[in-house]
Each structure stands twice: as structure tokens, then as C-alpha cells.
Design brief:
- The complex is a heterodimer of chains A (339) and B (507).
- Chain A has a single domain (42-51, 71-334), classed as ABC transporter involved in vitamin B12 uptake, BtuC, CATH 1.10.3470.
- Chain A is built from 13 helices and 2 strands.
- Chain A has helices at 12-51, 58-83, 91-105, 110-135, 139-157, 170-177, 185-203, 205-215, 217-222, 227-253, 264-274, 286-306, 312-338, and strands at 179-180, 183-184.
- In chain A, strands 1-2 form a two-stranded antiparallel ribbon.
- Chain A is globular.
- Residues 1-14 of chain A have low confidence and may be disordered.
- Helix content of chain B is 34%, strand content 24%.
- Chain B has 17 helices and 22 strands.
- Chain B has helices at residues 42-49, 72-78, 95-100, 114-126, 143-156, 173-188, 200-206, 229-237, 300-307, 330-336, 345-349, 356-368, 376-389, 406-418, 436-451, 463-469, 492-500, and strands at 4-13, 16-26, 31-35, 57-62, 65-66, 80-83, 161-165, 192-196, 209-214, 217-223, 266-273, 277-284, 289-293, 315-320, 323-324, 338-341, 369-370, 373-374, 424-428, 455-459, 472-477, 480-486.
- In chain B, the strands form 5 sheets. In chain B, strands 6-7-8-3-9-10 form a 6-stranded mixed beta sheet, with helices on both faces. A 6-stranded mixed beta sheet of chain B has the order 16-19-20-13-21-22, with helices on both faces.
- Classes of the chains: A mainly alpha (339), B alpha/beta (507).
- Chain A binds chain B through residues 1-3, 5-9, 19, 22-23, 26, 30, 199, 202-205, 207-209, 211-212, 214-216, 218-225, 278, 282-283, 336-337, 339, and chain B through 72-73, 76-77, 82, 84, 88-93, 97, 101-102, 104, 106, 110-112, 114, 132-133, 136-137, 139-140, 153, 172-173, 272, 274-275, 278, 314-315, 506-507.
- Chain B: It comes from Paractinoplanes bogorensis.
- Chain B: Residues 4-240, 260-503 form the ABC transporter domain.
- Chain B: Keywords: ATP-binding, Nucleotide-binding, Repeat, Transport.
Chain lengths: 339, 507
């Protein structure tokens, strides 16, 4: 509360010490923000390994990963969207629509089974992006409309959801249930896409633009960042990834199940935020999102292990986690600002 | 050959001629000061130069070619960089990312070369006296350092013109010197600089030429060294030095109502706020109108807000009626008897969608409610009293305030302030944007209120209004009280010469 540093020379040593201290705090806080979910994941894993014998098997680990593959894809797209400061509520609907489309199109071969859901979900993502970027409508409303529209479309092509298309392509079924090194194909596919996503986000100009748009849209446009183009692309990516997630899930189940995906968008948002991405945009990592998705997956798995627990408890626990993370993040961001 | 030139440029907004055939020329290697008070048209001119606004008339020439910038990006690509008063970078990204955003060095795979980017960022910033870790988030840096990063970025994109809008407003003295060093370098390289600031000492230290705008019109342009300070101030404020003081140009009575012997109703001691206020001290006695004089950015509004608890103070004492106001917040200030009329009535004062009655009642709700329930009849009584007292012209108390004229909106705001039973009234630009007749009414109301024993602090950019409305004028410059005018000294001439006095450099 004193004013010593307004006028009069300061001793450089004190300044340097102050700067060092500020930089150290900044580094620590930054690390906690980025790696918090990973740390919690490790703690949960250690506890689980120690107390649940059934958890401690390779098969169980592979099961967790296979189950986490579609949510991971959706959360990957959501990470891009949330870093730009947006939100995509349509992904749960696109996921189930993608599954139904893939199962139907599988009669024309495995290629069609992937291309059709990608084309339709990508197009819906494009529509979302164009509306959000060019008419400046709120992402929440635009993608809520897409959520309702895509779910309606899915119900229309499946006779009110009663018509379940079976996967006709053996290749597709094999992709959904086969494995390489005892780990499901879809896990490898998702892993590859995640790595590409990380490189795009961290090492390309498009990635920088995503952070800049979310960090400060006005500043970004003054600095020459193609704000609108960036926004359109993240929603296209989100749509494509949701459609792909639906397709690989159909491959695993062998049919286009129509009763899935409700609330999936909220799980994805939860995973992304637990992973340290700021809901207000501008900061976040895919590594954090991976930790977030796995954390939710492991908790689900553990609750199944306990057996006599109602699986709804998983949502109670996820909800609690989410609340804690948001509180911690708010605090950390403030701490960083002050220094 | 002129680097950047506008000829007879006009810009019209609904109801306002923001620029009225203004001409302006920037030579290569010139540091050109652009000055004027609020509403003079500086920002509009800058926005026309940088492609934010399209001019409604006149011509823009850049490097001797007719030019048209459709967007800020067009201007930037052509080599016109702007550093805004508010740092326009992305706080959550690293320093290096901010410096290189959109121009990141890439390796042969098209990937951003982080190592090279950080290294180059460090080298560039060292030249600006910034030696921080470039991988830190920009937002964690001090404002001064952020400003330097913005400047470095602006210069890096092969700028031929750099526009600086109050670049020193958040800098510390030694950072200002670093900035001036950079400006001298740019000047030597032949880059043209447009420098907007209200700190006269800075202008005379760094600028070659000056252009003065007032009310959207060009009033002077030429070499700065040839222009006396007092002349510069009088041109900005629009008063001829030789002009004799006219009595009664405003509706103030001109008679002092303060009682010299009375104990001050407001005592302000050594208010300090980083960069903005330094040891601001003054008293207001009951019935006295104390004016705060000075140019834009001198700390007048900050002082008023600080007393009202709405501006951060690092230290200082405020006493109302002999009682100390500890840790001022807006709620505590109101309780202590301080009423503040903010500068921007639309943004901070009235609620346009609510009715006259509701707006006035906002302030008195705590007083007329019991156990959370509001007494309608008490509100009606208060609203009725003030509508009559301040002669508010509204069809009924239920008319929306947004539909009233500016003058009546201001009166509603005053009514709301008075309804809290204040001891001190702080008025920031009470007559801005209202028509002449309403102005006179508001002015005589201020006089009346002081006559009833209120202590009034008045801020006005209208020198005449300030001088005629105030019993005393405390003159601020760069957040420091540089003089107090009392008695016969309360004249526009004395005000201007006090503002223009050269500051003593203390560092």
C-alpha cells in the first residue's frame, strides 16, 4: 500500500528479485493449470490400482480406452471450439446421427460408412460456423438449434428411432471389434487424430489463431488474425469429429443405435474444462482434455467395479469434480493476474 | 514529399460533425503531436487514418498516392501501425506469440519454430528495455512492459507510420524515457509518428510539429517549438488570451457562497493512485463550489471517482464532515454523504429503460424500505418533491428516462443524488451534451445547491463554466495539484497559465 515505486530510483536488485518471484509464481500457477487434471488422474489411478483388484488388468485398461474413444474425439473438437471462446452443443446429436448414417451407408461399403456421416456432420458444423462467425449469433443458440435439428433428422431417417440399421459391412464390424497389439483399432485411430490435433494447435498458425480469437477477439482482428475463418473451421472440425465418433461407435455396436448421445455434449464440455481449458476461451491444451476424458472414464469404470453402486453416482462425482475444477481455475487465473 | 496526408476530411455521425474539413500532413521522420480536448475529433481522425471509419468527404493520401483503407488490416498492411491506449494484444498468449502472431517463423514442415520465435522475441524486446521471459503470458506483465511489446510489434511490421494514442498513460517515468528512446530511433529511420498525449512536457520534449483540433475543426498546425505553451493551451481550450473576462456568459451567479471560517465538509489528503494521482490534497467547505481544473487525463475524473470509492487508491485520507471515510467503496461513500455524478451519464449514471420514478427511487430504496418491503407512498413523495424542485420536465413520473432530453436526464441523475441526502456533491462534466437552455438551468441549480450548504466539487472541460461556477479552482496536471486559484485569480487566463507552467522533473 505504499507508493515507493512511483517516483525515485529503485535499486535494480529489488526489481530483479520481484521479477524473479513473479515469474516463478507464474510458472507454478501455469503448470498447475495445465497439469492439474493429469495429477488428479494419476492419484485416482493409484488409488484404484491399490484397492480394486479387477481394475488391475490389461483387459480392463483396454476396455476403458475403447469406451473412451468416441468421447475423446468429441472432446477433441470441443477443445478447439472452447479455446476460441465458443461452445458446441450439437455434438451429442451429431454423434448419434453419424452412427445411424454410418450403419445405413455400410451397405455400400466401409468407405461410404465413413464418408456419409463425415459429409453430413461436417456440413452441419459448417452451417454452425458460418452462422456464428458471420451473423455474430451466440454459439450457444446456434448449436442448440443444430442439436435439435440433427436429432430430428436422425429420428426422421430412423422412423422415430424405432428403425435400427444394422451394419452391413464386415470390414466395418471388424474395425469396431478388432484390435492391434490387443488394443482396439479405434483407440489407435483416435490416438493418431489426437496427436495431429496437438500439432495443429501448438505448432501452426491456425492453432495460434484459435488461441488469439479466444483470448481477445478485438485484439486478434486488429492484429490481422482471420477471426471469422478461424471460427468457421473449429465448428467444421467439431462436426466432423462428432460424426466420426458416431461412425466408429456404430462399427463397435454393429448397428446405428438411436438412443445414444443425449447429454454427450455436456460430458465433452465437462472433460475439456476439467482438463484445464478456460470456458471463457484463450487457454487450454489437448493433453489436458485427454486427462479429463480418461478421468471421467476411469471414474465410470470404478463405479462399475464397485457393482452395488448406482451408475448415476458417476454423474454426481463428475459434477463435483467439475465444480472443484472451475473454482480452482477461477482462483488460479486471478492469482496469475495479480502477479 | 508528405508521408501521410488528409485534405478537407469530414466525418459526420448522426447529430454531430465529428470532423469538419480537417487537413493534416505527416512528413517522414516527423513526430507530430495531435492534441485537443474531449470531443475535439482526435480519435475520429485517427480512425479515419487507420481504416476504422470511412471519411464522408475529403481525400486521404499515403506516400503521395490517393489511398483508401477499408479495414484496419488494410492500413496495417500498407504500413500504418497503431498503438492504442488500451493495450490491444492477447493477454493469455505468451509474449513471444503476441509479438509474432500471424508472422510466426516456420520450419521447413510449415510448423511454427518455437525456439527461433522465442529467441528472436528476446532479441527484439531487449532493444525496448524489456528483459522478461518471453514464454510468460503477456497478461502477467506490468502494463508498461505490455505497452512496449505492443510498440515492438507495431514497429516490426515494417511500419512507415506509427500512431500512438496516449502511449505514456500507463507508463512509469523510466519507461517513458525508454519509449522516447525508441521514438528517437524511429524518427532517425524516417518513420512518421503521430503522437497523441495531453502531457505538455512530453509533447515539448519529443514532438516536432503539432496539430490542434477543437470541436471537429482544425485550429492550428505548425512547428511545436514555435508555439508557446500558454498559446497551445488556449488554442486547445478555445479561449483567446486577450479576451476579456465576460460576466454572465454562464448562468452561475459568480458570487462565492462559501463561508471561509467554516470547517471543511470534505477534506482530501494526499490521495495516491499508481500512475494517476500523486498526493492530491484539497478541502471543500459547506456552500463552496471547488472546481478541478486541468487538461484531459490530468486526474480530475480519477480524483472524483476515488473520493466516491470507485477508483483504486494506494494511499490517502478522505474526511466527510470530520469523519474519516476508511477504505472507500461506493456504498461506504454514499453512507458517508458523498454523491457522485459520473462523467458518462449514459454508461454509469441513469438506467434509460426505467422510468423517472424508478431511477430516482434506486438511490433511496434502502431508506424507504422496511424489512425488505418498499413503501410506495414514500417513494412517490420523494419523487414528487425532486421533480418539482429540479423542474424535471417529464410527461409523468412513469416516463422512461431514455425518452427525456439530455438536460432532463441530467436532472433526474441529480435528483437521484440529492435523494441520498448528501453532504458533498461531486459533479463530473454536469453539462456535457445538453443544450444551452438546459445547461443554464443545471448551472443555476448547482449554485442553489451550494447556497443551501452542500459542498460541491465541479469538473468541467469548459473553462468558462469552471471558472464562473467555482469559488476556487484546484489545478491538476499529470495527477499532481499544481496550483489553486482563489478570489480574483479565478479567471480563464490564470487557469491556462497554471496548466501551461512547465513541470519540474523530479526524477
Amino acid at each position: 500500500m505504499t507508493m515507493t515505486n512511483i517516483s525515485g530510483p529503485e535499486t535494480p536488485a529489488i526489481v530483479a528479485e520481484d521479477v524473479r518471484k513473479a515469474e516463478r509464481t507464474d510458472r507454478i500457477v501455469g503448470t498447475v493449470q495445465r497439469q492439474g487434471a493429469l495429477a488428479v488422474l494419476i492419484v485416482v489411478l493409484v488409488i484404484a490400482l491399490a484397492s480394486f483388484p479387477n481394475f488391475r488388468s490389461f483387459d480392463n485398461a483396454a476396455t476403458i480406452l475403447v469406451a473412451a474413444a468416441p468421447p475423446m474425439l468429441i472432446a477433441l473438437g470441443m477443445t478447439f471450439v472452447i479455446i476460441t471462446g465458443g461452445i458446441d452443443l450439437s455434438v451429442g446429436s451429431l454423434y448419434v446421427l453419424g452412427g445411424v448414417l454410418a450403419a445405413w451407408a455400410s451397405q455400400y461399403g466401409i468407405l461410404a460408412a465413413f464418408l456419409l456421416p463425415l459429409a453430413v456432420c461436417g456440413a452441419i458444423g459448417l452451417a454452425n460456423g458460418l452462422l456464428i462467425a458471420y451473423t455474430r449469433m451466440a454459439p450457444f443458440i446456434v448449436t442448440l438449434a443444430a442439436l435439435l435439428g440433427a436429432r430430428g433428422l436422425m429420428r426422421a431417417i430412423s422412423s422415430e428411432g424405432s428403425n435400427t440399421y444394422l451394419v452391413q459391412s464386415d470390414a466395418l464390424r471388424k474395425l469396431g471389434n478388432g484390435s492391434f497389439l490387443d488394443i482396439g483399432y479405434q483407440v489407435w485411430l483416435v490416438a493418431a487424430l489426437v496427436v495431429i490435433g496437438m500439432v495443429v494447435l501448438a505448432r501452426t498458425r491456425f492453432g495460434s489463431s484459435i488461441y488469439a480469437v479466444g483470448g481477445s477477439e478485438d485484439a486478434a482482428s486488429l492484429m490481422g488474425v482471420p477471426v471469422r475463418r478461424t471460427k468457421v473451421w473449429v465448428y467444421v472440425l467439431s462436426g466432423l469429429l462428432a460424426g466420426l465418433a458416431g461412425a466408429i461407435n456404430a462399427a463397435k455396436l454393429g448397428s446405428g443405435v438411436t438412443v445414444l448421445g443425449t447429454g454427450m455434449e455436456l460430458d465433452a464440455i465437462a472433460a475439456v474444462v476439467i482438463g484445464g481449458t478456460l470456458l471463457t476461451g484463450g487457454a487450454g491444451t489437448i493433453a489436458g482434455t485427454i486427462a479429463g476424458v480418461l478421468l471421467l472414464g476411469v471414474i465410470q469404470n470404478l463405479i462399475n467395479q464397485v457393482g452395488n453402486l448406482n451408475s448415476n453416482w458417476q454423474q454426481v462425482i463428475s459434477g463435483t469434480f467439475l465444480a472443484l475444477v472451475v473454482v480452482a481455475q477461477t482462483y488460479l487465473v486471478r492469482l496469475r493476474r495479480v502477479t | 514529399m508528405a508521408l501521410l496526408e488528409v485534405a478537407d476530411v469530414s466525418k459526420i455521425f448522426p447529430g454531430v460533425r465529428a470532423l469538419d474539413s480537417v487537413s493534416f500532413t505527416l512528413q517522414p521522420g516527423e513526430v507530430h503531436a495531435l492534441v485537443g480536448e474531449n470531443g475535439a475529433g482526435k480519435s475520429t481522425l485517427i480512425k479515419v487514418l487507420t481504416g476504422v471509419y470511412q471519411p464522408d468527404g475529403g481525400e486521404l493520401r499515403y506516400q503521395d498516392q490517393p489511398a483508401q483503407f477499408g479495414t484496419p488490416m488494410d492500413a496495417q498492411r500498407a504500413g500504418i501501425s497503431t498503438i492504442y491506449q488500451e493495450v490491444n494484444l492477447v493477454p493469455l498468449m505468451t509474449v513471444a506469440q503476441n509479438l509474432f502472431l500471424g508472422r510466426e517463423p516456420r520450419n521447413s514442415f510449415g510448423m511454427i519454430d518455437r525456439g527461433r520465435m522465442d529467441r528472436e522475441a528476446r532479441e527484439v524486446l531487449a532493444g525496448y528495455g524489456v528483459t522478461t521471459d518471453v514464454r510468460r503470458q503477456l497478461g502477467t506483465l506490468a502494463l508498461g512492459a505490455q505497452q512496449m511489446v505492443a510498440l515492438a510489434r507495431a514497429v516490426m511490421i515494417d511500419a512507415k507510420v506509427v500512431i500512438m494514442d496516449e502511449p505514456t498513460s500507463s507508463l512509469e517515468p523510466r519507461e517513458v524515457q525508454t519509449l522516447f528512446g525508441v521514438i528517437r530511433d524511429l524518427h532517425a529511420k524516417g518513420i512518421g509518428i503521430i503522437y497523441v498525449s495531453h502531457r505538455l512536457d512530453e509533447l515539448y520534449e519529443i514532438c516536432d510539429a503539432v496539430t490542434i483540433l477543437r470541436d471537429g475543426k482544425l485550429v492550428h498546425t505548425g512547428k511545436l517549438a514555435e508555439l508557446e505553451r500558454i498559446k497551445l493551451v488556449s488554442l486547445m481550450l478555445g479561449r483567446d488570451m486577450a479576451e476579456v473576462r465576460r460576466e454572465g456568459a454562464t448562468a452561475f451567479s459568480g458570487e462565492g457562497t462559501g463561508d471561509e471560517s467554516a470547517a471543511p465538509v470534505l477534506r482530501v489528503r494526499e490521495l495516491n493512485s499508481r500512475h494517476k494521482l500523486h498526493d492530491v490534497t484539497f478541502d471543500v467547505r459547506p456552500g463552496e463550489v471547488v472546481g478541478l481544473g486541468g487538461l484531459l487525463g490530468a486526474g480530475r475524473s480519477e480524483t472524483i471517482k476515488a473520493i466516491g470509492g470507485a477508483y483504486h487508491l494506494d494511499s490517502g485520507e478522505i474526511e466527510v464532515d470530520g469523519k474519516e471515510l476508511k477504505k472507500p467503496t461506493p456504498v461506504r461513500a454514499v453512507k458517508a454523504g458523498i454523491a457522485v455524478q459520473p462523467e458518462d451519464r449514459k454508461a454509469e449514471g441513469i438506467v434509460p429503460g426505467l422510468s423517472v420514478r424508478e431511477n430516482i427511487a434506486l438511490a433511496v430504496l434502502p431508506r424507504v424500505s422496511r424489512g425488505g418491503f418498499v413503501s410506495d407512498s414514500k417513494i412517490d413523495e420523494i419523487v414528487d418533491r425532486y421533480m418539482k424542485r429540479l423542474r424535471i420536465k417529464a410527461s409523468s413520473p412513469d416516463q422512461a428516462v431514455g425518452d427525456l432530453s439530455g438536460g432532463n436526464q441530467q436532472k433526474v441523475l441529480l435528483a437521484r443524488l440529492l435523494a441520498t441526502d448528501p453532504k458533498v456533491l461531486l459533479l463530473d462534466e454536469p453539462t456535457r451534451g445538453i443544450d444551452v437552455g438546459a445547461k443554464a438551468e443545471v448551472q443555476s441549480l448547482i449554485d442553489e445547491l451550494a447556497g443551501e450548504g452542500l459542498g460541491v466539487v465541479l469538473v468541467s472541460s469548459d473553462a468558462e463554466e469552471l471558472v464562473e461556477g467555482s469559488d476556487r479552482v484546484v489545478v491538476l496536471r499529470d495527477g499532481v495539484v499544481v496550483g489553486t486559484l482563489t478570489g480574483t485569480e479565478v479567471t480563464t487566463e490564470d487557469l491556462m497559465s497554471t496548466i501551461a507552467t512547465e513541470a519540474h522533473r523530479e526524477h
